[in-house]
Task: structure prediction
Amino acid sequence: MARRTNSIGHRTISALVLSALIFTLSSLTGAQTRPPAATSPRVPAKPKLVVLLVVDQMRGDYVDKFLGQWTGGLKRLVEEGAWFRDAAFPYAATETCVGHATISTGAFPATHGMVANAWWDRKEQKMVTCTADPDPSVKNTGYAGATPKGADTAWRLAVPSFAEELKFQTSETTRIVTFSLKARAAITMAGHKADAATWFDGGAWATSSPYGTQPFIEEQAKSHPAKADFGKTWSLSLPESAYWYGEKALGAVPPDGWDLTFPHPLRGKMGVGEPDGAFYEQWASSPYADTALTELAEKAVDALNLGKAAGTDFLAVSYSSVDYVGHEFGPRSREIQDILVRLDKDLGDLFAHLDQKVGRGNYVVALSADHGVVPIPEDMQKTGADAGVLHLPELQERIEKAVEPFNYAKPAVARISGSDIYFAPGVYDKLQQDHAALQVVLDAALAQPGVAAVYRAEELRDRPATQSPVHRAMANSYFPGRSGDLFILPKPYWLLDGTPTGKQRSYGTGHGVPYNYDQHVPVLLMGFGIQPGQYSQPITPADIAPTLAALCGITLSSRDGHVLAEALKRPASTSAPAKSSLGAPRN
Ligand SMILES: [Zn+2]
Result:
């Protein structure tokens, strides 16, 4: 509530500061009568390189909790950058594809259309991933001889990314390079085309046909393959007394071949022999995968001379391992604490590399996360608070039973995916005219343990004005045709779980709901044009792309986010004293 009320006044201030910024920038570019000598030749008008970093599943409070133990890049971002301490996604679908698309475009899922990692395709009557491309001419390809399956692109992304707008609006001078373990992260950060968008699939680096392949990635894939880390061990990197939580995370489900306690050896399922599927799972859940991504990013800077060309280049890395570790061990684990210590070191190395190759002050960094995570329900229950597991297959059975007397298609429910309930063709249209049956369905859903509320599609369409932040969050996630017919809001600390009845949950915990533990993430900006400091006003990660666009002097078509003008430096006031009222606004 406070967020939306504040943002109106905030937006007005932002507009004022932005116009001041644009005014001053235009004076620096020589449109005014000031002598050229008045501008500092050492300050470029635009960043040479934009670096976007996403730490998958990094909760906002990890910075507050663990900052004191960091000495590398994460610490530097806080100390030398702008730290937005109250950043949160204002929508319900707090998932990877959604968060990356939001950060990349500056729009909410109601605009960019990436409503989940995967959703029910009503036409095809099957689940589709957010990057699955049905175009038969598109193919995934692998580096170092790998042959990945499928075809993944950004064709379902309804608006251009910041990166592709940058390239398009600056005469194609921009190079776009992205890396992640996940296709849905590398692709959404890049956009529809790129010089390279690279992800990890089946033990090797992969890309697809709309994206370029790069010799330096081929070289790295051959000389430093993931399997070279076979036999290494992930051990605690700080003294034992530095860790906040117990040796074993309650309710954790580690990858095959790992115990609940450190050290975690990367030796696959059996602990001997050749890398197997379990090894790659362990590798992805270890700091070694983050290091591999960091090395690729550094190689990209070297091989392509990023930040040295005529335009502004774009480099993005989404670090996936915090997410895997979080799903397995939960947020209250030594594993999460330790992998952040290791990531802090990697980021320190990356920034040192950028300082050397691109030059301190010539590049701008934005770091955020795509979503947070809920504590493992069994762990949360220890506190006495209401927490649990919301079994989606049970919910589906309840709804089927409830509609049985009303003569509907069987099954009436086509799919429940996360909080979205999709009915079989024609069923929801009929239910909307059949108030008695619809009421019975809603009552049945509300009777499922852990369900707090049920929303109907027609309540979310066109983002209705509402006083309820949860209702608004649901509406910000709603994209016609892709979203469900009904939507479950779980109670706080209730995990949505699709594990078939009678089977053991294969993971510790998850995310994807409109509560702060999933929505609150860090937003850190550092470098070119950024005014360091701590900022406490509520913002969203959708503000990152418009802010980068302002720094680069481009325009995004549609955006739900706004420019974080408070964190933009007023351009070097080496020239004449600032014009009184225009030069004065805040900071
Ligand atoms: Zn994620």
Notes: Residues 1-41, 574-587 have pLDDT under 50 and may be disordered.
